[in-house]
TrEMBL record:
The chain crosses the membrane at residues 5-22. SUPFAM superfamilies: Probable bacterial effector-binding domain. This is GyrI-like domain-containing protein. Signal peptide: none annotated. Keywords: Membrane, Transmembrane, Transmembrane helix. Residues 163-295 form the GyrI-like small molecule binding domain. The keyword Membrane applies.
Amino acid sequence: MRKIISIILAIVVGAVLWYLFLKPQDYQVNFKAKAIPGTIFETVKAWNHGFDSVVPVDYISPSHFKQTILVNDSVYVYEWKIDQVHDSLCEVQVNIKDVDNSINNRLSVPFSDTDFEKGSRKRLLNFNSFLNEHLEGFNYSIEGEAEIFSSFCACVQIKTTPENKAKGMMANYNFLDGVLADNGVQLNGPPFVEVLDWDLENNSLSYNFCNPIIRSEKLPNHPDIEYKRIFSKNAIKAVYHGNYITSDRAWYAIIDYAKKNDIPIEKKPIEVFFNNPHVGGNELEWTTEIFMPIKETHE
């Protein structure tokens, strides 16, 4: 009997020690979201800027990342884990830890509905509303395999964050267009972006912003403009409608499609823009064609 009591006490003590000191979260919130993991990840990044002091989201994958929230004098760590149920639904688990008051929270949570719990639920309800509002601002469709166009073009290379991609385009639109127009260069199609490097871990994006042109012997020589040819190749194509700021939501959808269909791809999309944001109008009527190159396999 004494041995059984000792084992039970050891289990109880072990459980208490685990709960107080080793359990990874003080509180957990679960909810469903009608979006894919990449869209949720990017929306968390945008939502993150609404807090008192912004700490960059700690990227592990689009389905698993950590967010540090500073509110007044409190520091919370939100660990997001997202399980994709199907193409338009995810189950989201958020493990929450109050960095400076973890033990107090763990002692209080089982016995009462604490301010910490109420604040956590309210914050994530706020996020869910933020996400739903965001989802109303765009839509996309995957069209399957297609061929990237071939074109000679004039390009400006830009390095920024993914969320500032459109800002970089806007900043260079008049510059590139003006230099080409002043020198009588004939345009040969809508502007496009060629992604060179998409680094999610460091939240950086390098790309060429380009205008297709008719090649001639008298192209202007400018240190910020590069001339190059885009060659035709196989790709997965999507059509996106919405503000160009958030067109990368379709990039994630293409990646999901490629994974599901076992298609090897290069995460260097090309986006073709058919509307001029300077003109304004209904953003849901803006059209972007997106091509994610398929890796060439050599047998």
